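User: Please predict the structure of the protein below. I'd like the answer in structure-token form so I can feed it into my own downstream comparison script.

Assistant: Understood. Taking the following sequence of 380 residues as input:
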Amino acid sequence: MHSIISVQQVLIPSTSLFSFSSSTTFPKAKLERKLLFPASCSLEPISSTTSPSTSITSDTAMATSPAEEVAQDFSPFLKIYKDGHIERLVGVDVVPPSLDPETGVESKDVVISPDVSARLFVPKHAGAGDQKLPLVLYFHGGGFCVETPFCAKYHNAVKTIVAESSVVAVSVHYRLAPENPIPIPYDDSWAAFKWAASHSEGTGPDEWLNARADFRRVFLAGDSAGANIAHNVALRAGVSRSPAGVNLAGIVLIHPYFWGVEPIGNEPKEAEKRAMAEGIWRFSYPATENGSDDPWMNPAKDLNFGRLGCGRVLVFVAEKDGLRDRGWYYKELLEKSEWGGTVEVVEAKGDDHVFHLSNPTCDNAVSLVKKIASFVNEEK
């Protein structure tokens, strides 16, 4: 399945779209797949067509059609073809929701709106009796452009957090850029947050959330671009003092994708790497006027930054990740603001961007999940 867009001429090095280190490894993906996204997904199928011709010569027979000719190659993540369609190379597998016999975690898919859906997770014996469990809304990464909650990578990642933390989770499927440019992913994620909050009185459309979620202990979490979304949703909650009936206790930011025009700390100063980080943002938000100094991308430029709508923040960074210093800088900014909450940064030594997804059983990944469990179950 492909989707139709107008091809954007965005200059991003084709070696890697979402990581700043050549040592990162990625799962292999087939170049052509049939996708079975939930009904709320906005991707539109197209069929290949040929132009009418009265004769066929050896030259025309050997010519490459626009549908086959690549305009921009962002392998191993996506390709954009000259006829405008996009081929996503990762996150296109779909695993069904299920009851996992090993962990006891059960999952199901729900439709939030015509544009937004989610995968819900509950742990074994969730909400036994009158006991309710913390609620985590999780936003997947992928540079705003690839991945979904329904692929094996994110299904397993969220399932692991639920099993370890004993929480109810809503893994949000927001629409992807570039077909749905920024701010659509933010608006979709906010809509999912409001939908979850509609269950706070026990009268929402989903019985799992009505019966099992504790809306006095709500957390937002995400990795990479998803961590960026979690921050911005929490900020919107603080500025608007909504949604009603929800206590947003904290946010968990795993290797957050923040950036800025001016380098900080030990960030790569090379023009190519900085162009890559800037280019991902412009690819997702072609209408941006401030580039990576947009407040959505650079919290230091947000006049409302100190109004973050939660009291606790947990930030994970990785030693070899090009986004590492932005995570530490985020902590510094919060502590200097009028926010007044508590923020902690945990650094994984020797690892790279979102290592916990590619190597979920390594020591650092296990420690990351255990730290999340401790954070969301901390009594405050």
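That's the full token string. Residues 1-61 have pLDDT under 50 and may be disordered.
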